């Protein structure tokens, strides 16, 4: 393999010129978390500023960019399958695979026929300098450095996101928790906060570009500010962001339960623009399993957390992640998880059957749960999740809520989210145009009456007679 380092490649290669008189074309696909999506958009923007044209992954492209996830072995398999599909569609394109899977298993990625460049998590910030023109490489070039340390605070900047109205805003990277099932600290490195001035400037750019909802993202966003001088907090950053003009909504992505403190809940409760929505991972309801996972909270701590959330944010939209079938999980442990989840005020669940992840502490644990039992326990939790979601939907029916439409389906309906993270479909009147009419509803807060539970989402009716909508026509 050619392991030439990035510094050895001339930055003159960052401008590839044109292909047959046309601007070169880049297509990108992303797997994994919101942080990956943020970084993919930032990397594509680097190329666009050099004159590249972005095309869809299914279209002809000169450069294919795949941003990968490695949170489980299953995520690795999905990444390999996606890479092969994209290469099959575009066999002549230069192929760059980046992200956490590349960081964790560069040689494995390089063995996929057709891959030209394999880059890690830190190399995303200089990618155009790495792509040496538009030539396929005789051997994959691997550029993977150590994971980020506390001094690595560079913030990839971007101007927007394709096909969405909510903008992810990176505030932090890395993790120091080292849960026994998780590989991410080994691929993303130490926890470090982005510089507050950089975060605020990026937020201003996104708002000036027309985005009205910012979603704070990172590997461990609750850690924000702990490593700064002077030390800050996530609540402090949220206060600063809420001072920015044109911000209609501020939302948190996933946050660890021990980071949801009274200061943060107080900021959320004090400003109606701060979405009353928290996604915080329980992972299990059993003290024995939580201890084996090296989680920093126990069952009673989780109960107390949700009690505090209810006091500060009654009726908030609450979601969680759960891992079932962790090594050593007994029937009694699983029953404790079912019981706890059933009585917490949750509105949706993300359920993951435990998957062995090479390189983690849990991979060496004894007493594995049989695969079929893991699947059965997942099925029971998924069924419980459907009941919790149905109950949340039933409570919402008849309410008039604000929805931020961000997506138009083929049948003309719009989809968007309420502040408490209910997905809503808004059918449009037949024959409505896209300019000066309902086309202007996208990226604006619309009053919508919720009328029907459609399972995964709610169907509502835009109140077109309202003064807000009348002003948009």
Structural features, described:
It is globular, with a radius of gyration of 23 Å. The strands form five sheets. A six-stranded parallel sheet has the order 2-1-3-4-5-6, with helices on both faces. A five-stranded mixed barrel has the order 15-16-17-19-18. A three-stranded parallel sheet has the order 7-10-11. It folds into three domains: 6-143, Rossmann fold (3-Layer(aba) Sandwich); 166-395, tm_1862 like domain (pyruvate-formate lyase- activating enzyme, Alpha-Beta Horseshoe), CATH 3.80.30; 397-470, Nucleic acid-binding proteins (OB fold (Dihydrolipoamide Acetyltransferase, E2P), Beta Barrel), CATH 2.40.50.140. The protein has helices spanning 34-49, 73-89, 100-104, 106-110, 127-130, 184-188, 196-208, 234-241, 262-270, 287-292, 299-312, 331-343, 371-396, 467-470, and strands at residues 25-30, 53-54, 63-68, 94-99, 117-119, 141-143, 166-170, 172-173, 192-193, 213-217, 249-252, 277-279, 317-324, 348-353, 400-408, 414-418, 423-426, 446-453, 458-462. It is 31% helix and 19% strand. Mean pLDDT is 88; it is low at 1-18, 432-438 and 465-473. It has 473 residues and is an alpha/beta fold. A hairpin with a 5-residue loop joins β15 and β16 (414-418). The longest helix has 26 residues, at 371-396.
């Amino acid at each position: 393999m050619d392991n030439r380092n990035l510094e050895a490649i001339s930055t003159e290669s960052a401008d590839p010129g044109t292909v047959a008189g046309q601007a070169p074309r880049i297509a990108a696909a992303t797997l994994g978390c919101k942080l990956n999506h943020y970084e993919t958009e930032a990397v594509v923007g680097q190329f666009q500023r050099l004159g590249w044209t972005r095309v869809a992954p299914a279209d002809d492209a000169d450069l294919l960019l795949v941003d990968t996830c490695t949170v489980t072995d299953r995520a690795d398999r999905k990444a390999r399958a996606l890479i092969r599909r994209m290469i099959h569609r575009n066999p002549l394109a230069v192929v760059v695979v980046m992200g956490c899977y590349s960081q964790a298993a560069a040689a494995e990625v390089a063995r996929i026929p057709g891959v030209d460049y394999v880059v890690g998590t830190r190399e995303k910030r200089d990618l155009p300098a790495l792509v040496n023109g538009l030539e396929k490489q005789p051997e994959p070039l691997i550029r993977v450095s150590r994971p980020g340390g506390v001094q690595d605070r560079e913030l990839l900047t971007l101007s927007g996101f394709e096909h969405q109205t909510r903008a992810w805003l990176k505030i932090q990277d890395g993790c120091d928790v080292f849960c026994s099932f998780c590989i991410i600290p080994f691929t993303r490195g130490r926890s470090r906060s982005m510089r507050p001035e950089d975060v605020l400037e990026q937020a201003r750019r996104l708002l000036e570009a027309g985005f009205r909802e910012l979603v704070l993202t990172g590997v461990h966003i609750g850690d924000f500010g702990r490593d700064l001088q002077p030390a800050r907090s996530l609540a402090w950053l949220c206060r600063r962001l809420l001072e920015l003009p044109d911000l209609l909504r501020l939302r948190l992505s996933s946050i660890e339960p021990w980071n949801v403190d009274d200061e943060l809940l107080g900021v959320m409760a004090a400003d109606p623009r701060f979405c009353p929505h928290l996604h915080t991972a329980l992972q299990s309801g059993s003290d024995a399993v939580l201890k084996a996972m090296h989680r920093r909270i126990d069952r009673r701590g989780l109960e107390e957390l949700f009690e505090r959330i209810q006091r500060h944010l009654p009726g908030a939209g609450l979601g969680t992640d759960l891992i079932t079938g962790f090594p050593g999980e007994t029937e009694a442990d699983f029953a404790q998880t079912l019981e706890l989840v059933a009585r917490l005020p949750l509105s949706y669940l993300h359920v993951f059957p435990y998957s062995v992840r090479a390189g983690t502490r849990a991979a060496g644990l004894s007493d594995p749960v049989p695969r079929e039992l893991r699947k059965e326990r997942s099925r029971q939790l998924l069924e419980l999740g459907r009941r919790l979601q149905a109950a949340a939907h039933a409570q919402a029916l008849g309410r008039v809520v604000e929805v931020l439409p961000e997506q138009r389906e083929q049948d003309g309906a719009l989809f968007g989210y309420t502040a408490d993270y209910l997905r809503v479909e808004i059918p449009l009147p037949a024959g409505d145009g896209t300019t000066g009419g309902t086309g202007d509803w996208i990226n604006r807060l619309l009053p919508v009456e919720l009328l029907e539970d459609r399972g995964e989402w709610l169907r509502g009716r835009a109140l077109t007679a309202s003064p807000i909508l009348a002003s948009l026509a």
